[in-house]
């Protein structure tokens, strides 16, 4: 007899987190709560001490979630729609708050019943199993789940369907013949690298700039400190990227390109992302302990500033780009702290203007590519399409200001002390001008849509200008023109 003949008489219970949606509603609400008011981060441990049920109630009661913004798995939705058409009773059974689950069910229009957590009960694992068995009997329901918390429910269900399983759920499915509806495989190293945005580590080469300009970069102690500082900064920056993606999950899912990020696409679950982020932060702290104390202070300030940027500042008009320019400059200050170099106010002034120009070009491109009306704000930003020309003018003016600062520096006493032939490094001015003008022209042509700093670090023409500039600086200090008969 076909086992599916009586399926319509068997209720089908479906898990929410990681199953119906690719993310985790609790974690999404936690990050939305902290983004709305960072002081709530101090309350999270207090609520957790009261138990998981109270923790969920406190978080869910303070956050409103738009059901349309969640990352639903299309394969699961198609499966449920087909089962609904066959006449089956569908139950949304989740450890998330029942009222939130009710709004999700109403939005989808698929479920006949919703059961979820309450202030007194955390409907997870054994508790969910007991509730379903009490209502439908042992083996009186089918179940769709994804994680080790669902294994207890799998064992009480008549038939189990597994979605994007973790290790324990996959092992149970292999041993008991559970049907796998969606299988993206285990989290790959490629997904982790993309989540951490390792390509953005190129920005942290700025740490070496003070040592390069002071001609101490190849000293053994300096080199070791620079390598340590680079990785300490890179690990911390990647951790911040993870938290930033968690804060922006709903916006990223609606973005044409950011929706492909591993967290937004559901390739990596939030809990795994958080574990990796805290691991990277721990490694960053360990490395920092081997470096001068001043570097640790600068790194801590960077963390505070970049966290504030992720939470609030990036949504504020103009302050966001000024903060971005400051964060790039902090990398240079960190390089000074790591090697004990004297502060160069010429370098810091050049850095602020140069990176402000690049931050503005990034905003210009985002506005230019956004498909929004003239009076509508860019999602998650403080800009509107009519701001484009002002941004372009300010960006190019800032770039030219950086050239002026550079030209004044090249005629300063510091340069005459460092270089035997300072006139040889004057061509650096048009080289930097070329970098700035080219990136703005490409932006105007809509031929540029990358992070500008990463673009400069990976574009062969920009690399050629950088190599040529480095060669000029070397020659200005190392070539003996008298020996060459010049």
From TrEMBL:
One of its GO terms (cellular component) is plasma membrane. Keywords: Cell membrane, Membrane, Transferase, Transmembrane, Transmembrane helix. It is found in: Membrane. The keyword Protein transport does not apply. SUPFAM superfamilies: HAD-like. The keyword Cell membrane applies. The chain crosses the membrane at residues 224-247, 293-311, 318-339, 345-365, 390-410, 422-443, 464-484. InterPro entries: HAD-like_sf, HAD_sf, Prenyltransferase, UbiA_prenyltransferase, UbiA_sf. It is a multi-pass membrane protein. One of its GO terms (molecular function) is transferase activity, transferring alkyl or aryl (other than methyl) groups. GO terms for biological process: glycolipid biosynthetic process. This is UbiA family prenyltransferase.
